[in-house]
Amino acid sequence: MFAVDPIRDAGSLAGVGEARLDVSPAYMSIAPISSILDTLTLLTVGQHIALLLWVIGVFVVWRVARARGRRTTLAKEGFAVIALLLAIFLTYAAGAMAARPMAQLAVSDESVIAIDFHAHTKYSHDGRAGWTDDDVRRWQRGAGFNAAYITDHRTFEGAERGIASNPGVAGEGTILLQGVEAGYNGEHVNVLSAGRRYKGVLTADLRDIDEQSLMLAAMFPATTPLLIETIPGNLSKVLVPNPRGVPPVQAIEIVDGSPRGLSRPTRSRAHRPSRRQSQPRARLRLRQSRVGTRGARVDTDANSGLARDADRFVVAPNRRRAARDPT
């Protein structure tokens, strides 16, 4: 009923002045249709079920009321049911697969960088078929992201291909960086720069985090890998060190774009850990950075430069302002 800022701080839910969503004339020209299809893609599983039940209920009431004033046959009603199911299918298919203009994230200051920490390619079992690093780059640029981490499951191939074709100068295109999505205490986490800066923190098959290696890497702040909890799932498993002393995650993915992921925050509030359990917390925010400004050189050979400083600068555990890591 009331307008809500499309980009908000995850902690305070207040608007973020550094960023906004821009829409193109093409988007506005089909705004009613785009709004409906965009809304469908943002519903949770429960909301999808509720919507379908409501549509079916309205359809039944309409057909019953219509039948009272005129003669009908079983065949006519059967055709009406088939038409309804076909309309539902086509609407959802258009929302999921139809190419259409999209809103774009825009920042008001060129010293602010927008980063997506979770993207997949065809090399991941849950990636889109045929989706290459070039497709990821094109989509991320269209969405307004300056950089994006390719975090496929059990492989670095998509990320490495993306890094190999990165632009040499920041601002000439979206920079792709390397990460991996792996298991950790029964949860899924993204490990940034896992195959480059943090080699050895994963098991040999890249499926899970090697807890002993992670504990060794976390002995010094400068070598602690950055772990981001995805979806999110059971936060009590990853926000505090476990009994074996394995470090917690440093950041939380606020929401996943899938219907299952979109429904997680609502369920998580019912099982929120206590204040003591929820420390340390981390907020993922847009931050001002001296790295990645237009025209600055970007070193992607060793995944340093933008990659390293993005890890330490954009994700700021328990701090109002992020401070540059001296490393």
Q: Your description of this structure?
A:
The chain is an alpha/beta fold and 327 residues long. The chain has 2 domains: 27-97, no CATH class; 109-316, TIM Barrel, CATH 3.20.20. It has 9 helices and 10 strands. The protein has helices at 25-29, 31-41, 45-69, 74-97, 133-143, 157-164, 211-217, 259-270, 306-314, and strands at residues 19-22, 104-107, 115-119, 147-150, 175-184, 187-192, 227-229, 251-252, 283-284, 315-316. The strands form 3 sheets. Strands 3-4-5-6-7-8 form a 6-stranded mixed β-sheet. β5 and β6 (187-192) form a beta hairpin. It is elongated and about 80 Å long.
Looking at this protein, list some descriptive labels.
327 residues; alpha/beta; TIM Barrel; six-stranded mixed beta sheet; two-stranded antiparallel ribbon; 13% strand
